[in-house]
Amino acid sequence: MFAASGLNSRNNRRQALIRILFMLMTGLLILPVLIILTTLLYKGGPAISFEFLFGNPTNGMTEGGIFPALVGTIWLVAVALLFSVPLGVAAAIYLSEFAAENWFTRAINLAIINLAGVPSIVHALFGVGAFVLFMDFGTSILAASLTLAIMTLPVVIVATRESLQAVPYAFREACWNMGATRWQTIRRVVLPNAVSGILTGVILEVSRTAGETAPIMFTGAAFFLPFLPESVFDQTMAMSLHLFVISTQVPGVPDELPFGVALVLIAMVLIMNSFSIALRIYLRVNKKW
Amino acid sequence: MTGTVRSLAAATPSARKQLDQLDRAWYIDKIVQFIVFASGISAIIFIVGIFIFVTKEGFGFILGAFDFAEFFGSPRWKPTSEYNPTYGILALIAGTASVTGLAMLIAIPFSIGAAIYVAEFATGKTREALKVLVELLAAIPSVVWGFIALSLMNPLIIELFDVPVGLNILNAGIILALMAAPIMTSIAEDALKAVPDRYREAAEALGATRWQVISKVVLPAAKNGLLGAVLLGVGRGFGETMAVLMATGHSINLPDSIFDSVRALTATIASELGETVVGSDHYQALFTIGIFLFLITFVINLCADLVVRGIGKV
User: Which CATH code, of 1.10.3720.10, 1.10.10.10, 2.60.40.10, 1.10.10.60, is assigned to A50-285?
Assistant: First the structure.
């Protein structure tokens, strides 16, 4: 009944053009990174072997494997989680379940944003001043992990707060009406319903912590240390710093070695992130309320 | 009232036991409230702690060798000179600013464009896939970006532009743009999604085309959130350390072109702190740069928060 007028079809063409323009911008943002990742896979792939993953670096780090760095990163992440997960979850419980909407809560939120926004090298300086020198932990896993924990605290807080707030308010009201205290409500009703959401935040934090370099440079990570750490007061190698060291500080490293380290590091981070995202999507799809 | 109920109910042993349990639950509740409150304010304590400890280590320099005009006005950063060490960070500020500026020039249009596509055009599975992809890109560690700058971008720039060194403002700017864009995209996308659908419906009912809806209705309504995204990108650029250290060429320069090597504030701390003696002027000067970086990023984050949430509102 209504034939398309000239104006209409011109408009349609213009709309299609604009759509394609924005699609191109999105593509140009994502495509280079995908090309880069493919190149990493292509160049680093041949370096990956059993000896590479489970061997010591030898010959001035120009040969051999990455095992001490791999183990060191696991140490750093594990000790950091020990501090940041309980603290972050408790802080999120406060913000979600207790805090009133006032200037004080806003100040806490601003502090959280700032913890995430302060440059990583400033966190490193703080780690040196507070943990290495003032508390006298020396350059150790403990000092490095505490620095990392504070730096990545916002990741846990934000993810936990979101998953706590996703639990319907009616659940809490029902519980209070039964005479439960606030803590009983949180422990028996709110937390069990939010635990998977909190887990996604923790996984994200693991991946963030594993990739950080600057905060551990002066607080506990060593350039070269072919032993495995035995306690939290030892220094350790770490994957991220190892990549920096062999690609900038050591002459004569064959090309595929740093590509291999970069590939392992990026694989660790991306696998954990994908897992966290998959868990989040699963939770959303299977939501019970 | 409670007292009466208590004395009446406490008449039997089993009732007394029940009341004890209630008491215990009440005390536990109070203790937990205190613990979570203490954890809640820990973020504030840490931010204040960062400022105090970084200032404490740099304070001797600020009181002693520090000269305001030299520190901010001189491009000569020669802390290791034996006879006449100078501590001018102008060239380092120029390095950080030029790299961040170029990165934002690239990242702002692309990330807002991508955010518009994801929020306004893409639907269903495409939209979900793009969001996941953007999130994954944001997770790549900065040291890996630095390595990409060294090993892939460096030869590429040398070949494409026929310059002797490929570690320069251009290299670092592109790398930083690729790093900051995913975060800016997802914040900008949130800002666009926060514009209520009824705005779009009202505009479409008046006969507006998709583009008119976006340019005349959605973008103006989301402008504060978009500005917040840009500010966070700038803050990220100022604070980025490893990638900038590895990509800029790390030579002290007041740059003339994007093919000049520069050195950033953050990178200077990262590369020199390990070689200084604790408490020396050089060591303290590096902490003073740290205070400067802390204050800049604090102000940028504060501005972003005020812009997004509105001044004076809680």
Answer: 1.10.3720.10
